[in-house]
Amino acid sequence: MASVTLKGIAKSFGTTEVLSNIDLDIADGEFITLVGASGCGKSTLIRIIAGLEPQSAGSVEVAGRPVDHLRPHERRVAMVFQSYALYPHMSVAANIALPLTMQRLSLFERLPLVKYVSTRRPRVMREIMHEVDSVAAQLQIQPLLARRPAQLSGGQRQRVALGRAMVRHPDVFLMDEPLSNLDARLRVHMRSELAELHARLGSTFIYVTHDQVEAMTMSDRVAMMDAGRILQLGTPSELYARPANLEVAQFIGSPAINVLPGEVADGNGIVVAGSTLPIATGLPARSRVSVGLRPESIAPRANATAGDASLRAHLRRVENLGAELVLHCVVDGLDGVVVACRVPADQDTPLNGALELSFSPRACHVFDAEGVRVADRAAPGGAR
Amino acid sequence: MTAVALDAALRASRRRERLEKLTGMGFAFPATLLLVLTSLAPLVVLIVMSFTDYDLGNLGFKFIGLGNFAKAMGDSVFRRSLWNTFIYVAIVLPLAVGLGLVVAILVYGRKRTRAFYEIVYFLPVTSTLIAMATVWSFLLHPKLGPINALLGLVGVQPRAFLSDPALALPTLAVIGIWHLVGFNMVLFLAGLTAIPKDLYEAAAIDGCANPVDRFLKITWPMLGPTTMFVIVTTSITAFKVFDTVAVMTHGGPMGSSEVLLYSIYLEGFQYFHTAYAAALTVVFLAFLLVFSAIQAFVLDRRTHYG
User: Which residue of A102, A110, A112 is in closest CB contact with B206?
Assistant: First the structure.
């Protein structure tokens, strides 16, 4: 068990910079997720931590000591690959045992034929197989130990890959999109199993995914990355409730946040689709802003509640999710901007034609022209 | 009414099935005909002829049963050439496969120079062995050859590589290896390219840190199917050694480089013992059949990891 600290990590391939100046403190036993669209540098970062890729600048520390000069197996990290990377010519048992045999047997005791000369080897192998067995028991793959990876299903291979990582009792687990090759149903199931595994082992987990749901559901903290930088680091609820910029706001949450174009009014407030919302920004008048609204913050009403802002809209499409409905509405005066709002399935507002979309101004996330959250820039107590 | 309609439909579907079968056979016919004319029919003629006493130019022949095979068993030239062929294969097979693998791994590790080395090692494969054999004869010449000149520089007495009975067959084997290594290298390179990169990465994390471990745990087992294929093709090619013998040694000195195919050639086309040559060819084909059978059964079943 160990903390992981990244100090000024940068990486370039030739002239292309894929990571720039990444600083990250990961606490001992934390489950942290690096999330972002493909090409954002999250996989490169985890590979640098693993030691599979050298960084161009900066330093990686595990448990407070730099590991930059250490080779992957000396860093006390284990990795689960997206493809699982199981050794196809070995049985499941041999796959899981490999990290231990490499650790505990000398090169001489691993050589083909020569290894049978060793008298120590049978005893060590018995110990190793005992440990393999206990890991297999934890993952419920004991009946599969004699099989080859080709004879396993995707979910079973996933477990074997986990077992191979667990057997060494590493300080840090690195997981590079481990669930993305599974079907949707199994992915949901493995999500909770991974979270339970983390709770049971108490090790540090660094998890890479492009799926914001995985990031939100499993992690203690999430680092949202884009173009080689960390856009925001925080707990899942922080990222959801206070996105630092428009990219984070749009990436996190499903259905995605609604973004309405607006302009700072002459007095105080923001003009969206002709109506002025009572939101203080501290920005100069006529500045362009984007107003983000989560689908669940909007309620379609016949009459707006006092103090709430409202926009006139037309209903275009209803998505039925069972427990709730997602209404897709076109805002009047904002041609082409579709707003999604989530309402309970049993709600009684007539769902046709013209609607009044009402929401609290406090629920609005305001971003400036560069996409940076305005509230974070303005003085404390400013509009939220 | 319905019964009649059903009956008609059934007949129509049967007719369609028959037509489909005929069409299929029609498509297969040209290829089958070619196969029969060029391979199977000559093979049958060969086998029939091996049971006769026919010599080229004879007006008739009579069946002598297994006479030719019995003669071959007692024929010291045939026995020696069979033995020499096995020795030749025994030298060429491990070295041509082993060197092919070593060269492939070394070349695979190059980045900018990889194409250059690939071409260099593949050149012998593309060259005509008959022409190259002439060049080798010059290179190995006891007085004029540069190889003996080089040996002289380090104080080794000049050797008559091709006229020393102890050296002739090994020398031919070296040329055979030289000719095969490039081809095997290309096959191994293809095998190496097919090994997923993340296996090496997983191995690096699991502790396979040195090249020996990487080779033993990943490269060698993952090359299993390729290696099997290379072994079989190399065995067959080595078993068919002929060009270098015919050009460089003519089976000599003192029969020390007589090989199976060369003996068959002498019997059939120099001494015109057509039927006897046919019998020797049947024996030759029987050996090749064994190699092909190994390829067909062992290769296809055992070494695929799926």
Answer: A102
Check whether domain A256-367 has CATH 3.40.140.10, yes or no: no
Which amino acid does the sequence have at A85? A
From the first residue on, what is the mean pLDDT of each consecutive set of 10 residues in chain B (306 residues)? 79 90 94 94 90 80 81 85 92 94 91 88 86 87 83 80 83 91 93 91 88 89 88 90 86 83 88 88 90 75 53
| pLDDT of res. B301 | 59
Instruction: Compute and round to an integer the Cα radius of gyration of chain B.
Output: 27
Sign of CA dihedral A163, A164, A166, A168: positive
Q: Residues A192-218: pLDDT tens digits?
A: 989 999 999 889 999 999 999 999 999
Phi and psi, residue B167, nearest 5°: -105, -20
Region of B179 on the Ramachandran plot (φ > 0 left; ψ -120 to 50 alpha; else beta): alpha
User: Percentage of residues in chain B with pLDDT exceeding 90?
Assistant: 31
Which token pair is B27? 């498509």
In this prediction, residue B303 carries a pLDDT of 52
Q: Where in chain A is the domain with CATH 3.40.50.300?
A: 4-241
Q: Are B201 and A52 inside 8 Å of each other by CB?
A: yes
CATH superfamily of A4-241: P-loop containing nucleotide triphosphate hydrolases (3.40.50.300)
Buried/exposed code over B190-228 (b: 16+ C-beta within 10 A; e: otherwise): ebbeebeebbbbbbbbbbbeeeebbebbbbebbbbbbbb
Provide CB contacts within 8 A for B104, sequence distance 6+: B184, B185, B186, B188, B189, B191, B192
In which residue are the tokens 């050694």 written? B241
Q: What are the extents of the domains in chain B? A: 76-302
Peptide bond just before B225 cis, omega within 30 deg: no
Contact B213 A50 (CB under 8 A): no
Tell me the three state secondary structure of residue A120.
coil
Question: Smallest Cβ distance to B198: which of A85, A148, A149?
Answer: A85
Choose which CATH entry (3.80.10.10, 3.30.1300.10, 3.40.50.12160, 1.10.3720.10) describes domain B76-302: 1.10.3720.10
| A283-306 tens-digit pLDDT | 888 888 899 999 988 888 765 556
